[in-house]
């Protein structure tokens, strides 16, 4: 807990105690018929203590909400954003006329345009820039594929049920909400209790079903809607199950991620790439997760768009030829050491983070840098973007290093991109299950004599000791690195047995000398065969877009000052419509000029909207500002027009023939509005926007 919050909670408890003591003193004076002056003085002191308590409560409320000046009500801000988005049809609940289905949303015309622009920039920034191989795989996935990847057995969340109504809730969300509610809204809890609740939040992902159930009972958490008692937590698989074909004999699932389609195609992609590493494959597509209790709008849904990259690299060489292009970037990073010690994220130069080993390798660092550039070019506020390293309890056992790009929104810090070094786990898993070797080769110019580590589990002995767990123990033995294997060999030779941790069992087992043979053999090889490591950046497109909506939204007073107008400050890159064309008044000549400019904009590939209604120009500007349209061309003569920039409301005057090219140059990023402002005459709008 932050020192200031801890001291404020302690001060509040002490102040409450002082108030109670002073209250007793006032009552005692009144009971003893003390002189009025003494009673008044005591009451004055009591009121002063109450004011001091109120002041501490305000400071504490600001501290726990992360809003020191108290200027922004997060819930009110979020409601204003969501109301605007739904009213202007950026997105709406799916199947609304049938009361909708939780966790499913439709994108309306402006929402589709924003999403299309984000994905187009993603392709440009990653696929084209890095010469990636793009694939498009089916959403329906055979069970065997997801069995190999571990999703069938492990892709679960813990669920509890309302014991009377049967309504389901995600167990960790109920505990998380309870802790946050207590910390942020119950200012009367002690500093020690607040510290305990914060500790629960910190270890939430580590709690077993039994521990989670015990905490829910200890805190008296009930069903949010009915206050009925809850069942014990139990695992629920988040995949949508289906069957492939009419017989029902071929089970399948709607894919929970797009990555597996790339992994199973590795052999063909490697061949297509000339049998050379490194290379990256990319895929944009729908993914499906049967969320227990969807909430937070677009942030937690049951069908969503993922854009994923699998960058295959030699595990012995994770350098990157373009790493120097991002090494000098400096941005908020949140290494695990800072998290564990209770510190905040701080700005770190990416090159420093890699050189100090905070980030595991150059290729992982390169993609972290590229993700940062992608997000800030979209319009994400760099001061509300951080890269958080996974804690040890969050990391898969096979992962070398994992970072999340988290964006701050009214819901808190939201994971929007995961960038992970997944080691060689995925390709090995599919190799084992399919029997097809998903490997790469490095040819030697001359044969090399190499010393090979040979780990040979004795399956018969292991089977006798471990029965049904034999396979997991064998896999864990075979997955040992050279140091682990040689340490085990040494221990077995001296002691005859050794304790060995099997991560898939979550416990230590005793390995005896008769159960495994470990040796090193010399042989000549003409090539090296290995399983590539995978660096995986995975983008939740809907989450990024929602955070972009919040970061872009603001309100400003109308010129008359009598109303608040909503504005989205989208960069031209992602704006749903780049430009609007308005005749100043209803006039046939102006409308003809507007149609000529519209044709020029269409020819230039600029999305735009023409509005020849008789509504006042000020209202038309306000309507398009609310859609985030960056530029408006107003036709007020037959020879020249004005171009208005959304955020500054500044206007320049250009010839009719130049209008489309000026807008295209700025929206394409070849020039800036500042360049246009410097190169063309300024126009004063007068009372036009009233």
Polypeptide structure, described:
This protein is of the alpha+beta class and 690 residues long. It folds into five domains: 3-65, Helix Hairpins (Orthogonal Bundle); 80-146 and 259-439 and 531-562, BirA Bifunctional Protein, domain 2, CATH 3.30.930; 156-237, Herpes Virus-1, CATH 3.30.40.230; 446-528, Signal recognition particle alu RNA binding heterodimer, srp9/1 (2-Layer Sandwich), CATH 3.30.720.200; 577-683, Anticodon-binding domain (Rossmann fold, 3-Layer(aba) Sandwich), CATH 3.40.50.800. It contains 23 helices and 29 strands. The protein has a nine-stranded mixed beta sheet with strand order 3-10-11-21-16-15-14-12-13, sandwiched between helices. A hairpin with a 2-residue loop joins strand 15 (401-409) and strand 16. Helix 1 (3-31) runs antiparallel to helix 8.
The stretches of 5 or more residues where confidence is low (pLDDT under 50) are none
Describe the global form. Answer: globular
Tell me the CATH topology of the largest domain.
BirA Bifunctional Protein, domain 2
Hey, roughly how much beta strand do the residues contain? 25-35%
How many beta-strand runs? 29
**Count of discrete structural domains:** 5
Named at the architecture level, the CATH assignment of the largest domain is 2-Layer Sandwich
Mean pLDDT: 90
Query: Strand pairing plus helix content: what structural class?
Result: alpha+beta
**Superfamily at the CATH H level of the largest domain?**
Bira Bifunctional Protein, Domain 2
The radius of gyration computed from the alpha-carbon positions, rounded to a whole number of angstroms, is: 31 Å
Count up the helices: 23
Distance between the termini: 50 Å
Q: Largest beta sheet: what is the strand line-up? A: 3-10-11-21-16-15-14-12-13
> Helicity level, as a percent range?
40-55%
Task: Give the CATH level 1 class of the largest domain.
Answer: Alpha Beta
The main pleated sheet reads as: 9 strands, mixed
């Amino acid at each position: 807990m932050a020192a200031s919050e801890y001291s404020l909670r302690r001060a509040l408890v002490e102040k409450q105690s002082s108030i109670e003591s002073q209250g007793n003193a006032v009552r005692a004076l009144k009971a003893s018929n003390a002189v009025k002056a003494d009673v008044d003085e005591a009451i004055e002191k009591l009121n002063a203590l109450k004011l001091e308590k109120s002041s501490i409560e305000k400071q504490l409320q600001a501290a726990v909400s992360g809003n020191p000046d108290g200027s922004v009500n997060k819930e009110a801000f979020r409601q204003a954003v969501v109301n605007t988005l739904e009213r202007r049809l950026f997105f709406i609940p799916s199947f609304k006329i049938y009361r909708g289905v939780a966790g499913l949303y439709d994108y309306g015309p402006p929402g589709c345009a924003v999403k299309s622009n984000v994905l187009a920039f993603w392709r440009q920034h990653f696929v084209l820039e890095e010469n990636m191989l793009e694939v498009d795989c089916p959403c329906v996935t055979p069970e065997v594929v997801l069995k190999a990847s571990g999703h069938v057995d492990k892709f679960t969340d813990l669920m509890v049920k309302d014991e009377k109504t049967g309504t389901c809730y995600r167990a960790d969300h109920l505990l998380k909400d309870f802790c946050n509610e207590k910390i942020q809204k119950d200012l009367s809890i002690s500093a020690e209790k607040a510290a305990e609740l914060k500790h629960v939040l910190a270890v939430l992902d580590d709690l077993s079903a039994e521990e989670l159930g015990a905490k829910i009972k200890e805190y008296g958490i009930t069903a949010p809607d009915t206050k009925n008692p809850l069942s014990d937590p139990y695992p629920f698989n988040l995949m949508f199950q289906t069957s492939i074909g009419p017989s029902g004999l071929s089970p399948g699932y709607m894919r929970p991620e797009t990555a597996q389609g790339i992994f199973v195609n590795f052999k063909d992609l490697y061949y297509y790439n000339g049998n050379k590493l490194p290379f990256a494959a990319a895929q944009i597509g729908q993914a499906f997760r049967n969320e227990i209790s969807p909430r937070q709008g677009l942030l937690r849904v049951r069908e969503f768009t993922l854009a994923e990259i699998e960058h295959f690299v030699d595990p012995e060489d994770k350098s990157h030829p373009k790493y120097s292009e991002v090494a000098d970037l400096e941005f908020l990073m949140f290494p695990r050491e800072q998290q564990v010690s209770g510190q905040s994220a701080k700005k770190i130069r990416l090159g420093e983070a890699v050189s100090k080993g905070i980030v595991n390798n150059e290729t992982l660092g390169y993609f972290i840098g590229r993700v940062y550039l992608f997000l800030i070019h979209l319009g994400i506020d760099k001061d509300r973007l951080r890269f958080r390293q996974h804690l040890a309890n969050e990391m898969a056992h096979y992962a070398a290093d994992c970072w999340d790009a988290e964006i701050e929104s009214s819901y808190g810090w939201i994971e929007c991109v995961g960038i992970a070094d997944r080691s060689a786990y995925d390709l090995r898993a599919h190799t084992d299950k399919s029997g097809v070797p998903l490997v790469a080769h490095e040819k030697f110019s001359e044969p090399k004599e190499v010393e090979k580590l040979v780990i040979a589990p004795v399956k018969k002995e292991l089977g006798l000791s471990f029965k049904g767990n034999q396979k997991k123990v064998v896999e864990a033995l075979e997955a040992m690195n050279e140091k682990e294997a040689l340490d085990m060999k040494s221990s077995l030779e001296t002691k005859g047995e050794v304790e060995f941790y099997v991560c898939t069992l979550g416990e230590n087992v005793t390995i005896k000398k008769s159960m495994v043979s470990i040796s090193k053999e010399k042989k000549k090889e003409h090539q090296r065969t290995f399983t590539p490591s995978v660096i995986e950046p995975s983008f939740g497109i809907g989450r990024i877009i929602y955070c972009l909506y919040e970061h872009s939204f603001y309100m400003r007073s109308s010129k008359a000052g009598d109303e608040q107008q909503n504005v989205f400050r989208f960069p031209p890159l992602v704006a749903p419509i780049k430009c609007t064309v308005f005749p100043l008044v209803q006039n046939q000549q102006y409308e003809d000029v507007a149609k000529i400019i519209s044709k020029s904009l269409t020819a230039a590939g600029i999305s735009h909207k023409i509005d020849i209604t008789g509504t006042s120009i000020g209202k038309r500007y306000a309507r398009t500002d609310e859609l985030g349209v960056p530029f408006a061309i107003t036709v007020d003569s037959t020879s020249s027009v004005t171009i208005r920039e959304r955020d500054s409301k500044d206007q320049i005057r250009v010839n009719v023939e130049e209008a489309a090219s000026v807008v295209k140059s700025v929206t394409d990023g070849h020039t800036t509005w500042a360049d246009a402002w410097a190169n063309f005459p300024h126009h004063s709008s007068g009372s036009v926007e009233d």
